[in-house]
């Protein structure tokens, strides 16, 4: 496929890796923020091409993984109600709540449907006017324009049987929270390319300056990630802490203005709990005053619901880069993709699942590192 | 779930209101409908990056080639250093 395959060329990957070896003179810790990048790094063995003393820390950038337990429990409660059609992206169905998951609710007769796009949920609402249709709106800035459009169109169509359970999260406040933590070991960031395709990268220079960290907007293919790492290491080695854009083919400095406009119209910024991390101020999106009628938490009276996270899952430390997935005592034993304890083992973009899937037998069985 | 992949816009429908503009997008032979609401500048033949049914941005074809130009330069420099051909 054009714009995909050519960015997976093994020889070119080796070439960038050699350059990284050449410019690296000391240890560096670099965090890739996005779970899609974590997945590619582990799948293609990109970390194994790097000098030993460059450590990639897998960041909190998987929306499925950071959706708090109480939000999953709210979804489960709504989905189990008679008369409700609960719609969601497929990867939320196996995320464990306190006692069960959406897939089990469906098996017990709940009307839970997987949709590809939030607009499909609006269509279902139009076709089922006698039933309540709820969409589980999770995701980063990348996904927010799609859910915003669904709410906007539902409002335009005057649909009163459509609502959304929203757990949208924002990347820059999470970076700020990470960098402000005393345990933080991150010295440079690869920022998530598709988040920046929407938001641009004008939010990042203050972060780079305040915490003296280079931030490189990076794509998702192996060559993109390697080039992002190279740009980051070059900055670290020369003592710079700037914002650079590796993913120029898809990301413009100002981002996607029409998308930002609709997101601002439909949503407002709210504090949000992150699974394993806790509440981060101004780190999420909720419906703005004009659209509260579409808020499923209000409609189903669940705003006061609070749940604590289980103690034996260390996903909080994984998500903050304090431990690697296989350092969790439950990894591969008590916790597997079939019986996940935490969301980072459920989602294919979660760090635990990526390690389990590609590193189960030996560390070296990956595409580039033969 | 943040997966977003590039595809080629084969046809556009949905009329004058940009909000309802849709495209048929070809991902290496698999055709899917995607909303073009957020990329009003996109024309038939352009490549777009699609996520959950929405085109997020247009792929800039000139920029897309630059990384390969950069790699080629690196290669030539290597060859120079090694006293190659
Ligand atoms: S291996 Fe399982 S229990 Fe351990 S941190 Fe990952 S998801 Fe949680």
Q: What would you note in describing this structure?
A:
The complex is a heterodimer of chains A (370) and B (85). Chain A has 370 residues and is α/β, with parallel strands linked by helices. Chain A folds into three domains: 127 residues, 3-Layer(aba) Sandwich (Rossmann fold); 150 residues, Rossmann fold, CATH 3.40.50; 55 residues, no CATH class. Chain A has 16 helices and eleven strands. Chain A has a six-stranded mixed β-sheet with strand order 4-3-5-6-11-10, with helices on both faces. In chain A, helix 1 runs parallel beside helix 12, helix 2 runs parallel beside helix 16 and helix 7 runs parallel beside helix 8. About 2% of the residues of chain A have low confidence. Chain B has 85 residues and is α+β, with helices and mostly antiparallel strands. Chain B has a single domain, classed as SH3 type barrels, CATH 2.30.30. Chain B has one helix and five strands; from the N terminus they run βββββα. Chain B has a five-stranded antiparallel β-sheet, with no helix packed on it. The radius of gyration of chain B is 18 Å and the shape is elongated. Chain B starts with a strand and ends with a helix. The model of chain B has no long low-confidence stretch (mean pLDDT 84). Classes of the chains: A alpha/beta (370), B alpha+beta (85). At the A-B interface, helix 1, helix 7, helix 8, helix 10 and helix 12 of A face strand 1, strand 4, strand 5 and helix 1 of B. Bound molecules: iron/sulfur cluster. The site of iron/sulfur cluster has 15 residues of chain A, from helix 15.
Q: Quick recap of the structure?
A:
Chain A is of the alpha/beta class.
Query: How many angstroms separate the termini of chain B?
Result: 47 Å
Any idea how many domains of chain B?
1
Supply Rg of chain A. Answer: 21 Å
Gyration radius over CA of chain B: 18 Å
- Low-confidence stretches of chain A are 361-367
Low-confidence stretches of chain B: none
Query: Could you report the average pLDDT of chain B, rounded to the nearest whole number?
Result: 84
User: Largest interface: which pair?
Assistant: A-B, 54 and 36 residues
CATH class membership of the largest domain in chain A: Alpha Beta
CATH topology of the largest domain in chain A: Rossmann fold
Structure summary, number of beta strands of chain A: 11
Number of helices of chain A: 16
* Helix-strand category of chain A: alpha/beta
β content of chain A, as a range?
15-25%
Ligand set: iron/sulfur cluster
